[in-house]
Design goal:
The structure holds two protein chains of two kinds. Chain A is an all-alpha fold. Chain A contains 16 helices and no strands. In chain B, helix 12 packs antiparallel against helix 14 and helix 19 packs antiparallel against helix 20. The chains are: A mainly alpha, B alpha+beta.
Chain lengths: 333, 583
């Protein structure tokens, strides 16, 4: 078991290396380059820029062959030095530090909520199949599943964010600007109030998906022999469902965790833009359009790490929920 | 050799309001009275500035915050736009007066204002001016976009209270390069060790500039200097804080050397999304939304509740809608074809529908408020019949009867390039396609990312595209229409016309204003006749702001507003003392 995870952990290194090479090449091969964007902006009409372009290229180190650029990046990254952003020359690590907590908070709450809501919903709809309640729930979930988040967010802003309709929620940022003068309790409620809409818009889709997975998996499990056995033993229905069935039907939605985790560092461009939240999504979006190579590489590396981490964690969680899965044996065999 | 002439380094435009003195200013004076101090203005900013270092930043929003429409907010320039002088650049700011210029137009001497202090209390000196130019000229500083306009400056010397600029060539635009291109930054903040002290301006642009270790060290520090996140200027408002992703707050500078502001604070709220910005305005979170969408102006800001609280306005914006034809393509070589294309486009309808009334038909490549603007110029009419005749005359006739005109075996079929994210283009393309199709021309479209669009059009890898260029202060048309600019400038349309070249060269060397105007008129007429580009409309933008502000004026320079002169009567003040706005 331990050796299996050790092996898996060591495998992360070559995988990361491969990902970084591919991303590096892709980023640099994409048309457009940061020096050009800097020297000639679309709105501005400028004169002879060849000389300035050359100087800026040299300044950004873009005049060197690609492999040398890659190795100097690699050399820096192993010492955990992400370098400087080309946009404002600030250390990348500083920019990420500014934004990561915001995104981790938003996505973390949203993922947690999604699981907390979708597991009971899944269980309910599996155990109350064909009931009216389950049908309404199914229709509602499919409805949610089909709503694009930019639309829902825009509607929320128009109808709940003040203006012509109800002024229920703040729609801008994650805290009031005078929050610094608030007491601790006020600050917490203020923050919670600001989080409601963005978190709701981030969560509903995942919830809909997860609860369907949970339902299917649950349905499969409760048809199995060991459940019948449990019932035959005379266990209460409650115990049968919650102790025996639920735990076993968690496996598929745990696998999905690996897909959701990258959002922790990735953020959501749409939601962040609409609600004026400066998270990782906006950072990556702006980095892409500015062709901010070092920043992009830092972001790619981070999300690669988290994705690989997510897969590892999912594997590990299998063991926790299902004692039959044991990597040690398989590795030995 | 091509020379990039000093055009305004900033994204701003000076326009001249001579033709219509009051057209763009509007004053709310309902309950005017004596201006009083107090209150805040919370202004929507449509993006976050990448840095607030005025020399390395390239975004328009950074410039809005740093020196606003009047060249004077946190930082100041040497001279600003003079409303009493047709918005020419003659208003003294950090210079005491416009420079004295030698007869050969090679020496500009600027007398520096006395008694000005930086926001940190240090005195402002001529050395700061010299330092600013040295920093901008430093080849290792990330200021390349400024250097392309400074190529004629050979040396700069400090002489007592004056700064002398020596030019290598005479050029009309050098005036702007000297007095209205750089925001002056404090030497003691950006170079406390005096790393650049031993170098003259000449050294900076010479070979030493690239190799000297001291200059290298300076440039490294300069590019990511902390003052880029907390600027120290001389202007009427001081930087207070920058809450990343949220807002930039400025506070009134009570020690300002000139006319002080009234509002206690200016809070630039960064709200990217237009719907969210309008919701924020309606709920009172922001006070000024300087650029509504036309549809918001027409449909989402009506009703008594809104009108009681806010004033809606339209103002001229120095950006025009252009279609650019690649004049080297076989279809666009003949000027009759280019004229025909313009006549096939119902520009008024486009303004009325797509732009929802925001825009004005015109034919000049200059900004309509420039003092060189040719008022007699009439746009070509919308006339498909005449256009058809012109196309026939040019030899573009449907020979094979497939409904598409052709000539010498080439079909009149071309591709339109659009910028991703431009909603105007998305609506524009089908209108053009339909009109052209009816007249035997087929167009297809390709939408690409704006970062890519620039490169593509610079290399002339396109047939036609639409763009909304910001037209600069007595905009240097040299870089847009001179044949030499097709290679390395902004002559995207690949327009090569000997007569036009000659006019452009004359304009650069004509220091007599009246004669310059004649030349400019000739140029406008020539280009209107040649139609290398089609002017769709002159810009016009909608805005809405809280009614409590007094003396609100709209200016012909970007961003169009200058809150440093706004004020609020005591009874209507919303934010008292230091209490921050709710939001």
């Amino acid at each position: 078991m331990r050796s299996y995870f050790l092996k898996r952990l060591l495998l992360v290194i070559p995988t990361l290396l491969g990902i970084s090479i591919v991303s590096f090449i892709l980023i640099h091969l994409a048309p457009g380059d940061p020096a050009e964007l800097k020297v000639q902006s679309e709105e501005r009409i400028t004169g002879d820029t060849a000389q300035q372009l050359k100087e800026t290229r040299e300044l950004y180190g873009l005049d060197q062959p690609l492999y040398i650029q890659y190795f100097s990046w690699l050399k820096r990254i192993v010492t955990l030095d992400f370098g400087y952003s080309l946009g404002d020359h600030r250390p990348i690590i500083e920019k990420i530090k500014e934004r990561l907590p915001v995104t981790v908070k938003l996505s973390g709450i949203s993922i947690l909520l999604a699981y907390l809501i979708s597991i009971p919903i899944g269980v309910y709809s599996a155990t109350h199949r064909h009931s009216i309640g389950e049908r309404i729930l199914t229709i509602a979930l499919f409805g949610l599943y089909s709503i694009p988040n930019f639309w829902l967010a825009t509607m929320a802003i128009i109808y709940l964010g003040g203006g012509d309709f109800w002024d229920v929620f703040p729609v801008f940022g994650l805290a009031s600007s005078n929050a610094a003068n608030f007491s601790l309790w006020q600050r917490i409620t203020d923050q919670a109030w600001h989080l409601v809409l963005p978190v709701a818009c981030l969560t509903y889709y995942t919830t809909a998906v997860l609860s369907r997975y949970m339902r299917t998996s649950m349905l499969e499990i409760i048809r199995q022999d060991f459940i019948r056995t449990a019932r035959a033993k005379g266990l209460s229905e409650r115990l049968v469902i919650y102790r025996h069935a639920v735990r076993n039907s968690l496996i598929p939605i745990i696998t999905l965790m690996a897909d959701l985790l990258p959002a922790l560092v990735g953020g959501s461009v749409v939601i962040e833009t609409l609600f004026g939240i400066q998270g990782m999504g906006q950072l990556s979006y702006q980095a892409i359009f500015a062709r901010d190579y070092p920043l992009l590489m830092a972001l790619f590396t981070m999300s690669a790490l988290v994705t690989l981490g997510g897969i590892l964690i999912a594997d590990f969680l299998y063991v926790l929920v299902d004692p039959r899965i044991s990597y040690g044996q398989r590795a030995a065999a | 050799m091509r020379r990039a002439i000093a055009l305004s380094l900033v994204l701003f435009t000076i326009l001249f309001a001579c033709s219509r003195p009051n057209a763009t200013s509007e004053t709310t004076s309902a309950n005017a009275g004596q201006p009083v101090k107090g209150d805040w203005a919370v202004v929507r900013l449509e993006a976050e500035p990448e840095t607030l270092n005025p020399l390395t930043s390239t975004s328009a929003v950074a410039h809005f915050v740093l020196w606003g429409a009047n060249n004077s907010q946190i930082y100041e320039l040497l001279l600003g736009y003079n409303p009493d002088d047709q918005w020419s650049v003659t208003k003294p700011l950090l210079a005491e007066a416009p420079p004295t210029i030698s007869d050969d137009h090679l020496t500009y001497t600027v007398k520096i204002r006395d008694g000005v202090r930086w926001h940190d209390g240090q005195p402002f000196t001529p050395e700061d001016v010299l330092f600013t130019f040295k920093a901008a000229a430093c080849p290792l500083a990330d200021t390349a976009q400024l250097r392309s306009d400074m190529t004629d400056i050979a040396d700069i010397q400090v002489d007592g209270h004056s700064v002398r600029f020596l030019m290598s060539k005479a050029n009309v635009y050098n005036y702007i390069a000297v007095v209205n291109s750089l925001a002056i930054i404090p030497k003691h903040v950006f170079d406390p060790e005096g790393l650049l002290d031993t170098f003259s301006y000449k050294d900076m642009i010479g070979p030493k500039g690239k190799t000297d270790p001291k200059i290298k060290k300076f440039a490294e520090q300069f590019n990511n200097h902390p003052a880029g996140r907390m600027p120290v200027g001389t202007g009427p408002y001081k930087f207070e804080k920058w809450d990343s992703g949220r807002d930039v707050v400025l506070a009134r500078n009570d020690d300002y050397w000139g006319k002080k502001g009234y509002l206690d604070k200016i809070d630039y709220r960064i709200i990217v999304d237009y719907t969210a910005a309008l919701a924020a305005l309606k709920s009172g979170e922001i006070d000024l939304q300087p650029r509504l969408l036309p549809i918001q102006y027409n449909q989402q800001t009506s009703g008594q509740a809104f009108e009681q609280q806010f004033t809606k306005t339209k103002y001229e914006y120095p950006a025009a809608g252009w279609l650019i034809w690649n004049n080297e393509r076989p279809f666009f070589k003949d000027k009759r074809v280019r004229q025909a294309l313009t006549m096939l486009i119902d520009r008024q309808k486009i303004i009325d529908t797509i732009r929802q009334g925001f825009g004005r038909m015109g034919a000049s490549i200059l900004n309509p408020q420039s003092k060189y603007f040719d008022r007699d110029l009439k746009p070509l009419p919308y006339d498909p019949k005449r256009a058809g005749e012109l196309l026939d005359a040019a030899g573009w006739i449907d020979h094979d009867g497939d409904g598409i005109r052709d000539k010498d075996g080439v079909k009149f079929k071309f591709e339109f390039l659009g910028s991703m994210g431009s909603t105007t283009y998305k609506q524009l393309f089908p209108v053009l396609a339909e009109e052209f199709r009816k007249n035997g021309i087929e167009i297809t479209d390709r939408v690409i990312e704006s970062a890519l669009l620039q490169k593509t059009v610079k290399e002339h890898q396109f047939d036609a595209f639409s763009i909304v260029p910001v037209s600069d202060l007595d905009q240097q048309q040299y870089q847009v229409f001179h044949s030499s600019s097709a290679q390395s400038g902004s002559n995207w349309s690949n327009f090569k016309n000997a007569e036009c070249d000659k006019l452009l060269e004359q304009i650069r060397l004509e220091f007599d204003d009246a004669k310059r105007k004649d030349l400019y008129w000739k140029l406008q007429e020539l280009i209107a006749d040649e139609q290398p580009v089609t002017i769709l409309y002159y810009g016009n933008e909608p805005a809405a702001y809280s009614k409590r502000f007094q003396d609100v004026r709209w200016l012909p320079m970007r961003p169009g507003y200058d809150v440093t002169s706004w004020w609020v009567p005591l009874s209507q003040q919303k934010y008292k003392g230091t209490a921050a706005p709710k939001g």
